[in-house]
Amino acid sequence: MSPILEVNDLTVTFPGGIQAVRGVSYQVSRGEVLGIVGESGSGKSVTSLAVMGLLPKNAVISGSVRLHGRELLGMDEDELVRVRGKAISMIFQDPLSAFTPVYTIGDQLAEAVRIHQKVGKDKAFKRAIELLDLVGIPHPTVRAKAFPHEFSGGMRQRAMIAMAIANDPDLLICDEPTTALDVTIQAQILDVLKTAQRETGAGIVMITHDLGVIAGMADRVLVMYAGRPVEEGRVDDIYYRPRMPYTMGLLASIPRVDGAEGPLVPIEGAPPSPKNLPPGCPFAPRCPMRIDACEQEEPPLVTIGDGRHVACIRSREIEHKNLSSTDVYPVPVIPPSDIQRVPREQRAKVLELDNLVRHYPLMKGAVFKRRVGTVHAVDGISFDIVEGETLALVGESGCGKTTTLQQIMQLEPPQDGRIVVLGKDSAKLDKASRKALRRDLQIVFQDPMAALDPRMPVGDIVAEPLRAHGQKNVSAKVVELLELVGLAAEHAERYPQHFSGGQRQRIGIARALALEPKVLVLDEPVSALDVSIQAGVINLLEELKNRLGLSYLFVAHDLAVVRHLADRVAVMYLGRIAEIGTVENVYDRPAHPYTQALLSAIPLPDPEMERTRKRIILEGDLPSPADPPSGCRFRTRCPKFARLSEHERRRCVEEEPVVIKLANAVDHGAACHYAEEIEVIPASDDLEEK
């Protein structure tokens, strides 16, 4: 079968001689999924934009891009417009910015149909409704008349997919289509993409940094680094038999939700800037297998087998010696914590929440405002954390995780309930005691760049809390803190913009540790990082906890990261705790249908497992916290609810469940009238053995 898309020696150069893409070649056939993976800055998205003809005019593009044998590079813009959306379509990473905010979703879908098909407005709008129904938008006739801002993130992404398949294209390019979505919505989107492919028979180019998504979707994988391909092959070959140290490092650094233990294996350093590529192999400065020859000449992409290509002079050695990722990358050793040997019930509580409530008034009116409802952001949650323990708060966006953090960090009387930090009730603190307690309660934010003042050198940023609390000998303490988080003393003179994302997050951690706190609140501390950089920060947090005896409250939506870092986990849904217990109990034997759906939705970086496992796909989006369902808040999306008898359903509708300890469980409770422990994650197998 002749390929739909043929890309040959594609090169993209921006002003200043910056080569963002350097000689990319690949093919995509009908019905095939090609996954393109790599760290930020590897050239993945620039490649796709070059194929679509969407790069700015100052970009110099060379090579060849053929769609059904027709050359796209250099094509007249009017002709290219007729091709885009008809024969080739793109699904963008941020659907909100991709839609026009002043037109309804239905009108924009109808416009995409009418540009390429000679149909009237009514017929095009009817087709728009059919497309919304196809991608799983509830009440498509009503929703077609809504504006983009009235859709949730998952619904906008589904509408974007509907627009992309409106004219039955032969090729879909998906640029990080699930990056900003909750794992349950991600599962829905991936399911919709598979449906779209079945309906259109299109080939798909899936661009993502999530190797779990690629394992379940792709037929072939192209790994990019520093603007060019470094390995290509069938998905099973890439995952089970990688031949490039960079690919091996990416796979070893992935946190796995299926029970793999031990520290993650980070790739040291950061990707090079396309403006200052090192001599020889661009990966050599970070490669544990580098030799002198690696720095003399950049290795070409050569064929090493049926459909396998690799750019590494030591690939044959890796194959012949059957080297695994752990053979190539040394596994970090994290010393165990002494405090964790003490039974949990004998350790002091450092943080306790008892029936915490936070409601917000829902107001209406521009001039004369009136209250029209109440947003139940946090609606009565209870948990505690002891010395040397990590508790993770997980759940979808809008479940109340961030509001809970805000209530804790404010150290002020809550609306209802109690917050006790290190034995002190926040409702009884005066100004002086509140400031003193802040020394022991610090936070690490999600976005390290936004959390660091770009006008201040790193040394001053780390020293700021020390000076605020009147400490002396600040300079020596700053050097000690930077070295503690793996940075050098000379970094104190640089500014935040001179550091990589992972290094900036380490600076944020150093600042949080400056006052030697006992409790550290971690608000999505690794979600903005590449998986290779993320692994190093996760290991650092684990090492600091063990060495300094810290306790963590860790908020995250990535349940694979939570499994590596947390001791206990609390699953939140619509302002309430659905399930709580040790990580082993909750992950291996989830009892609440919501937890089961969350865990089953997480993609595993294992193609064989992904092909055989069953997922629990939740229907619809999270209900509004301003109007939560009666009784069990999860019942409107609960897959178990549909299987219950009429009598059992009535209980779910009328009676709100509370967290009840499960039978035969030391530390495991669920807020479900019909809780049942089941296994949803297949047992872990070593990737290297395959």
Describe this structure in words.
- This protein is α/β, with parallel strands linked by helices and 690 residues long.
- Among the domains are: 225-328, no CATH class; 340-440 and 517-577, Rossmann fold, CATH 3.40.50.
- 32% of the residues lie in helices and 21% in strands.
- Helix 5 (121-134) packs across helix 7 (153-164), helix 17 (458-468) packs parallel to helix 19 and helix 18 (474-484) crosses helix 19.
- The model is unreliable at 686-690 (pLDDT under 50).
Task: Please give a quick description of this structure.
The protein is α/β, with parallel strands linked by helices and 690 residues long. Helices cover 32% and strands 21% of the residues.
List keywords for this structure.
single chain; 690 residues; alpha/beta; Rossmann fold; 25 helices; 24 strands
Q: Could you name the CATH homologous superfamily of the domain at 340-440 and 517-577?
A: P-loop containing nucleotide triphosphate hydrolases
Major β-sheet strand ordering: 6-7-8-3-9-10-12-11
Beta fraction: 15-25%
> Rounded to an integer, what's the Rg over CA atoms?
26 Å
- The termini sit apart by 30 Å
Structural class: alpha/beta
Give the overall shape: globular
Number of strands: 24
Biggest sheet architecture: 8 strands, mixed
CATH architecture of the domain at 340-440 and 517-577: 3-Layer(aba) Sandwich
What fold name goes in the CATH topology slot of the domain at 340-440 and 517-577? Rossmann fold
Low-confidence stretches: 686-690
**CATH domain class of the domain at 340-440 and 517-577:** Alpha Beta
**How much helical structure, as a percent, in the residues?**
25-40%
Number of helices: 25
The averaged pLDDT comes out at 90
